């Protein structure tokens, strides 16, 4: 699950990571009130107004602006709230901005050379360990740095048994060319950041920029935070941060009915029970000359209601030309599943306009096949994997 910048900073602050102070606002009036409050708390008189959308590159798209007075706070937030923000990371259509973060300006006036540092934490899938990636070349052009001068990006891998060690935190501060107060500040910053990453069950932290202020403080100015969906039950306060306005509507619908669904760009929809079988089914579709339109694991209870919900979700994708249902009846009996498919199909009337191939294997598979064949619906049945593949091929 992705969260907004202001929420990401809230999570970081909970774990003692230094962040730029800010308050979220949904109207220009709220933005002015937020700015006044920030002035009371931090004595700042300049502010940055930042569009809150789930996309990076906001600075380049005009979604991050400096306001040097309350009048400018009002004018800029008026301009940003409600706009369609187009950035290098959005579609051409952009994303609608519902709220802005009003933050204290931390690039103090007179601070001609603010140091923008890049720090991210993510899993290295090759070694199975978390790693911290960092660079002195933070800021809005980090992608260019990665492409043209990758030697300027360092990595530090963390042993999960002991966590981030003190010498590693010092090495990072050293490689970032910091000294004195800023060096100490960075050691504290990365240590807290790593604790936050593990403690929040995150799958990605990207803090770009981390700023070294002119008075040598180290603070997070931006925060891209992705949390592990499977661990959200441990963090009800973070789970409540979900903003479904930012998410794919099909994904939202699938989650509401408890289906594991990932949309892909192929033409054969699939409905399978069990993630392993789903993967194998996607391979099968490929071999049959198709391309999977989705990954969908209906889980253990393939009853009529769930099957119907799954059909509806698959059919929201206009690219789907056929649906392959591949269910292994172990604990769940195949005849029950077949009845579920028949009921769902009847219930949906004309909503199903594509051929459906059903392969049921396991307990009562033969009874299930008979049920489907006798149902007089436009559903083809198969028991063997290969039969199902051949039928998919014919259907395309
Ligand atoms: P992104 O473009 O979506 O990654 O948004 P960021 O939060 O990284 O902001 C983009 C840029 O805005 C930063 O790289 C900074 O150069 C600038 N910026 C952010 N906060 C401040 C601030 O407090 N003062 C000033 N003057 N600029 C800021
Ligand atoms: Mn950024």
Structure description:
The chain is of the alpha+beta class. It has 3 domains: 1-19 and 109-246, D-amino Acid Aminotransferase, Chain A, domain 1, CATH 3.30.470; 21-105, Dna Ligase, domain 1 (2-Layer Sandwich), CATH 3.30.1490; 248-395, 3-Layer(aba) Sandwich (Rossmann fold). It is 37% helix and 24% strand. The protein is built from 13 helices and 18 strands. The strands form 5 sheets. Strands 7, 8, 9, 10, 11 and 12 form a 6-stranded antiparallel sheet that branches. A 4-stranded antiparallel sheet has the order 1-6-2-3, covered by helices on one side. Strand 16 (322-329), helix 11 (334-348) and strand 17 (356-362) form a beta-alpha-beta unit. The mean pLDDT is 93. The structure holds guanosine-5'-diphosphate and manganese (II) ion (MN).
Structural class determined from secondary elements: alpha+beta
CATH superfamily of the largest domain: ATP-grasp fold, B domain
* Shape verdict: elongated
Please give the CATH architecture of the largest domain: 2-Layer Sandwich
Question: How many DSSP helices?
Answer: 13
Give the averaged pLDDT, no decimals: 93
Largest sheet: 6 strands, antiparallel
Helix content: 25-40%
Proportion of residues in β-strands: 15-25%
Bound molecules: guanosine-5'-diphosphate, manganese (II) ion
How many domains? The number is: 3
Distance between the termini: 35 Å
Strands, total number: 18
CATH class of the largest domain: Alpha Beta
Radius of gyration equals 26 Å
Q: Can you tell me the CATH topology of the largest domain? A: D-amino Acid Aminotransferase, Chain A, domain 1
Low-confidence stretches at least 5 residues in length (pLDDT < 50)? none
């Amino acid at each position: 699950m992705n969260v907004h910048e202001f929420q990401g900073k809230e999570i970081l602050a909970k774990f003692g990571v230094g962040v730029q102070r800010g308050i979220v606002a949904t109207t220009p009036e709220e933005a002015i009130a937020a700015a006044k409050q920030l002035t009371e708390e931090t004595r700042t008189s300049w502010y940055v107004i930042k569009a809150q959308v789930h996309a990076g590159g906001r600075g380049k798209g005009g979604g991050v602006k400096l306001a040097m007075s309350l009048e400018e706070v009002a004018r800029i937030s008026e301009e940003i709230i409600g706009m369609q923000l187009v950035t290098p990371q959005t579609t051409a259509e952009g994303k609608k901005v519902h709220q802005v973060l009003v933050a204290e300006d931390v690039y103090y006036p007179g601070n001609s050379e603010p140091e923008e540092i890049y720090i991210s934490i993510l899993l290295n899938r090759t070694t199975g360990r978390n790693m911290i990636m960092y660079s002195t070349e933070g800021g809005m052009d980090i992608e260019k740095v990665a492409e043209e001068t990758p030697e300027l990006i360092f990595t530090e891998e963390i042993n999960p048994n002991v966590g981030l060690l003190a010498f590693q935190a010092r090495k990072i501060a050293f490689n970032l060319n910091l000294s004195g107060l800023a060096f100490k500040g960075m050691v504290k910053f990365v240590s807290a950041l790593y604790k936050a990453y593990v403690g929040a069950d995150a799958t990605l932290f990207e803090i770009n920029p981390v700023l070294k202020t002119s008075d040598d403080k180290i603070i997070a100015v931006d925060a891209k935070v992705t949390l592990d969906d499977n661990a959200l039950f441990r963090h009800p306060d973070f789970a409540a941060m979900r903003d479904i306005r930012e998410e794919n509507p099909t994904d939202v619908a699938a989650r509401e009915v408890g289906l594991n669904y990932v949309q892909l760009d192929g033409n054969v929809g699939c409905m399978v029970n069990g993630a392993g079988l789903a993967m194998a089914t996607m391979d099968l579709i490929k071999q049959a000359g198709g391309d999977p339109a989705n990954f969908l694991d209906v889980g253990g209870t393939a009853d009529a209601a769930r099957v119907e919900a799954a059909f509806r979700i698959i059919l929201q994708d206009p690219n789907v030309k056929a649906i392959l249902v591949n269910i292994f009846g172990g604990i769940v009996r195949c005849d029950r599943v077949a009845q579920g498919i028949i009921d769902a199909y009847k219930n949906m009337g004309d909503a199903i306009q594509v051929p459906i191939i059903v392969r049921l294997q396991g307990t009562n598979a033969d009874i299930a096949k008979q049920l489907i064949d006798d149902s007089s619906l436009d559903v083809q049945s198969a028991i063997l994997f290969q039969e199902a593949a051949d039928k998919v091929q014919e259907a395309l």
